[in-house]
């Protein structure tokens, strides 16, 4: 029969082939919690084992996943939190995301790279990824608004995902961290056009063509229909000499010219390299963390032996 | 890059609009890595009641195997006295599914567990389209019957 006391069945992990903690636990009879309010701080050892399996990582340090999910607001900071892991993970993540963006968009200027990174790999996106992993119920934190509130969950989750990247880096090495970032965070489509700020595209295009040594851009009407109706369509192309650099449509000539200039600029700046090949992070020689012993929780003061 | 400053009021409006455009999009499961949707299964049973009989059998014989085979699911067994046996499934998208297995036979319970495990977590909904695409075309979905030259395989057959 099942014992009444709270036990984790299968702590004799010999049965389990993969060596993971068995994700089965028994609780004392509790009042069935009504699922109307958000469940906060109701996670258990098995939650973290399951989370590791879901993400296909296996930390050498058994308590690491729990630490990754512990925000400093939990239990007044008595438990070791994910602060340091988050700090490290933020830098690791920004490195690999930066590599990816620089390789994928060779002509994108720095401000736009910043904007793309902020929009697609900032706190909001990381929080969405965290929710997707199922990390929100596993988080140990307390909101500033009160113990049962979820205000501030986005930032906490985003930090937890950064901490997760940091934990993978520390525990498994640079190559594993890069693979993790690539598989989980770099796979969604990046929307460039929404991010790249193109105020005054016509002026910008003139400057660009001057810089590149092309002829002065001239707009030419290529196709039109319904000029004297309520819904005309004009298709305008911008030409540098005989070469067309951009094409745009509009319900007025001015609008079409604007769009054509914008198209030309996007073709240049937002040029995307499909199937970008990232150089594989080679070895644990890259990091300062010794690979041999299971690098203990981040609260340990020395990493090396 | 050339730029000019707009009055502050307009700037904030544009900023708010941009923020809306840039709102974080949900990741697509399976494109990079696949995150298993079912994250937790809770088995509630009553030790005394007759309706929980097969549930108890399942828990004694097959539950551990199931948990071992599915390490990504947190399996929780929780006595719930004087109530019918119930299996609750929690999914990564925040939804839950509950199935009462009172008086189910010993063969039916593993099937219920399997169906709960394999569910995506999304509510049932009616899709009014044949194809759902991120890059829809103005010209519609390809149809092999509405092309200039219908592909004829009879030539290939005679070869």
Automatic annotation (TrEMBL), chain A:
Gene3D superfamilies recorded: 3.30.160.20, Ribonuclease III domain (1.10.1520.10)
Alphabetized UniProt keyword annotations: Mitochondrion, Ribonucleoprotein, Ribosomal protein, RNA-binding
Segments forming domain RNase III: 48-173
Biological process (GO), any one? RNA processing
Its annotated compartments are: Mitochondrion
Quote one Gene Ontology molecular function term: double-stranded RNA binding
Cross-referenced SUPFAM superfamilies: dsRNA-binding domain-like (SSF54768), RNase III domain-like (SSF69065)
SMART domains, per the entry: DSRM (SM00358), RIBOc (SM00535)
A cellular component term (GO) from this record? mitochondrion
Q: Which residues form the DRBM domain?
A: 200-270
Q: Pfam families from the xrefs?
A: DSRM_MRPL44, Ribonucleas_3_3
Q: Which family does the record assign?
A: Belongs to the ribonuclease III family. Mitochondrion-specific ribosomal protein mL44 subfamily.
- Return the protein name: Large ribosomal subunit protein mL44
Q: Which organism does this sequence originate in?
A: Coemansia asiatica
From TrEMBL, chain B:
Q: Which segments constitute the Ribosomal protein/NADH dehydrogenase domain?
A: 47-120
GO annotations of cellular component type: mitochondrial large ribosomal subunit
Q: Do you know which Pfam families this protein is assigned to?
A: L51_S25_CI-B8
Q: Which UniProt keywords apply?
A: Mitochondrion, Ribonucleoprotein, Ribosomal protein
An example GO BP is:
mitochondrial translation
Source organism's superkingdom? Eukaryota
Is-annotated flag, keyword Ribonucleoprotein? yes
Principal localization reads: mitochondrion
Which GO MF term does the entry hold, naming one? structural constituent of ribosome
Where in or outside the cell it occurs: the entry states: Mitochondrion
Query: Which PANTHER family does the entry link to?
Result: 39S RIBOSOMAL PROTEIN L43 (PTHR21396), LARGE RIBOSOMAL SUBUNIT PROTEIN ML43 (PTHR21396:SF2)
Indicate the family of this protein.
Answer: Belongs to the mitochondrion-specific ribosomal protein mL43 family.
Q: What is this protein called?
A: Large ribosomal subunit protein mL43
